[in-house]
Amino acid sequence: MSNIMLVTSGKGGAGKSTVSVNLAYSLINQNKSVVIVELDSGLRCLDVMLGIDNVVYDLGDVLSGACSVSAALVSPIEKLNIIAAPANVDFEINPERFKKLCEFLSSKFDVVIIDTPAGIGEKLQCAAISANTALIVTNTTSVSTRGAEKAAEAVVDAGVNDVKLIINRVEKEEDKRYLPDLDAIIDQIGAQLVAVIPEDKLLSKNPLERTKKEIKQSLGVKAFLNLSERLNGKNVPLIIK
Ligand SMILES: Nc1ncnc2c1ncn2[C@@H]1O[C@H](COP(=O)(O)OP(=O)(O)OP(=O)(O)O)[C@@H](O)[C@H]1O
Ligand SMILES: [Mg+2]
Predict the structure, then answer these.
(1) Quick one: which ligand is closest to 8's CA?
(2) N or C of the chain: less Cβ packing under 10 Å?
(3) Domains and CATH numbers, the chain
(4) Which residues surround ligand 2, an ion (CB under 5 A)?
(5) Single pTM value for the model
């Protein structure tokens, strides 16, 4: 498994942060240590998603040298850490410093997940020069697919060789005419499909607050388990029925 992975989508709201959190949680359940770096400015959300209320320092503080890396790591549960996005909307990320930070984190954790903001600009470039794998997240709509296509092109141009595709929020459809054409999406984006994640409300709930019953019944949780196993090199089925 490559150990610095960026999660991107091009368009906003495709599910990058949901994928980052649920993948991380699935990986720690397989005994991997994971850090999620929230590469955004002003729109911090990982702390809320994970019920963290003790963020003192953030990515901006680490990159500007105002605090040590360890001071900015916040852990809601053993083996999982986050570095929160800079609170300052105007914070400019220095690409070289960000890359060095990711390299340092990859020596301390099994997996580094970079949760990128929407868009294909400077922040995605920063993530792309730092990561060895890109996980492209798309929904089944044509607008989302277009965004993902552009994001995939941007990361390849920036030198990421390993680009993988996650199709998110796939709804169960009784009427076959309305089933999304996953092959067309894969062809357009041109990346290897590694997960089909169903629409599942539980994926929006803090993983630390889910009941055993909810977890057992959730196809979404199962899809993330399969994804993490697949990223670990196991041969597991792709489509969840
Ligand atoms: N598979 C899913 N099933 C149900 N809800 C989902 C799923 N994936 C994402 N969502 C919901 O969609 C919304 C957007 O998800 P999320 O915040 O993860 O997207 P994002 O790509 O990180 O957005 P942004 O571009 O703003 O960073 C959230 O309300 C989230 O709970
Ligand atoms: Mg997000």
Answers:
(1) 1
(2) C
(3) 4-231 (3.40.50.300)
(4) 16-17
(5) 0.96
